[in-house]
Each structure stands twice: as structure tokens, then as C-alpha cells.
Amino acid sequence: MQDVESWEDHCCFHERRDYAGLVAYCRDEVKRSPDNLYAAERLLQALVLNGDYGDAINFGATLERRYPGVGMFANHILDALFALGKTEADFDWAEPPSIVRLGHGVSDDCYAFLRTKRKARSLHDLHSELWPHDYVAFTDLELLHYLQRDERFVVNGETPVNAEISVARKRKRTGG
After folding, report:
1. Whether 134 contacts 106, CB under 8 Å
2. What superkingdom heads the lineage (predicted)?
3. Can you list the positions of beta strands (E) in 5-107?
């Protein structure tokens, strides 16, 4: 049975940035509950946070092959690969993940989503509506700056937390 208070322990390790301790704690959780996919994901994340990228990739490979199509492991594997200067092509995926990279396709997706909306939306809204199951290979700040440079958008706010994005509306001409 899983300890219902284990989330508190995880929080303590995170707050102290004791990632080596978190790895040890998560390894113990996985030993006690080897079929608990959430415990496995937490260990995978802890390995990445601790900079154990090779171990994360190896453990992630085992999980990804054992549970193909369970996307919860892919983001951590990708984080480890990218931290080592590798790409998704350097991993033998049972089921390749969907990766969203910043470019015209992203701004076109944002435009298509926002043009039907009356109210401005946050970056969080864009992420949750447009890429809920994808690995997003850019930061919120990069997306914010990208949209600020695109004339199709009006961006109010200077930080990813407070920015509100809408589509620039064409003004109607008045006769005269």
C-alpha cells in the first residue's frame, strides 16, 4: 500500500533541493511498489533533477518499452537527452513522442485558437488547450517573446505569469 503522506516527503526534498536524497527515497518507493507507475515516474524525474541523465535514460528506456504508449515517461527521457546535448533521434522509442518546437506552426496554432475567442488568454491556457499531451521544447518566456514579435497578436503583460494574449482585431472603417 502506498503511503498517502509520501507527497509531503517529496515536497521536503524539492524545497531543500536535495535531489540525491529524493533519488534514494524514490528508489525505495519503486522497490516497495514495483508496479506503481507514478512511483516510477517520480524516480525518473528525480534522476533528471539530480543530473543523473544516463541513469534516467536507461531507466526510462526500460519503462518506455514495458509500457509503450504511456506518455508520462517521455518528457523526462527527453529532458535527460536534451541535457546531454542529444536529440529525440538518439533514443530507440517504442512509440515516439510528439514534440512541439517554436516556429510558425506554433504561432499559427495560437492564432487559430485565439481568433475565435472574445477575451484574451494566458500562456497557461494556450498550453493546456493546444499541447496538453506534447513535449513543448520551448519556455513560456520564449513563447511570449515570439508572440510579441508577431503582428497578429496583442500581448498585454511583460512576464509569462501575467501576460494576456489576444488576436489583433482589424478596425472597421467608418464611412465619411
Report:
1. no
2. Bacteria
3. 99-100
Tell me which amino acid residue 106 is: V
Q: What is the pLDDT of residues 14-48, one digit of tens each?
A: 899 999 999 999 999 999 999 999 999 999 999 99
Cα–Cα distance for residue pair 144/164, rounded to 1 Å: 10
> Is residue 73 within 8 Å of residue 60, measured between CB atoms?
yes
E-strand ranges in the chain read 99-100, 135-136, 153-156, 164-167
Dump the DSSP string for 92-137.
--SSPPPEE-SSHHHHHHHHHHHTT-SS-B-HHHHHHHH-TTSEE-
The type of residue at 132 is P
Task: Kindly give the pairing relationship between strand 135-136 and strand 99-100.
Answer: parallel
